[in-house]
Amino acid sequence: MEFPEKKIKAGLSAVETCKKIHNMGGIAVAAHP
Questions:
Q1: Does pTM surpass 0.85?
Q2: Phi and psi of 8, rounded to 5°?
Q3: Interatomic CA distance for residues 29 and 33, integer angstroms
Q4: What is the distance between the alpha carbons of residues 5 and 11, in angstroms, rounded to a whole number?
Q5: Tens digit of pLDDT per residue, the chain (33 long)?
Q6: Which residues of 9-32 are buried (b: 16+ CB within 10 A; e: fewer)?
């Protein structure tokens, strides 16, 4: 039961990281598609 919990936490962490990258790099990505 421990593995799925860690996997879920890792998934949430990845989502937060993606959001942070999107917020910080969104302008750069828009400028350089």
A1: no
A2: -65, -45
A3: 6
A4: 10
A5: 566 777 778 778 888 887 887 787 766 666 655
A6: eeeeeeeeeeeeeeeeeeeeeeee
What's the rounded Cα separation, in Å, for the pair 31 and 6? 36
DSSP annotation of 33 reads -
Tell me how far apart the alpha carbons of residues 6 and 26 are, in angstroms, rounded to a whole number: 29
Task: Count CA within 13 A, CB hemisphere, residue 27.
Answer: 2
Helix (H, G, I), strand (E, B) or coil at 1: coil
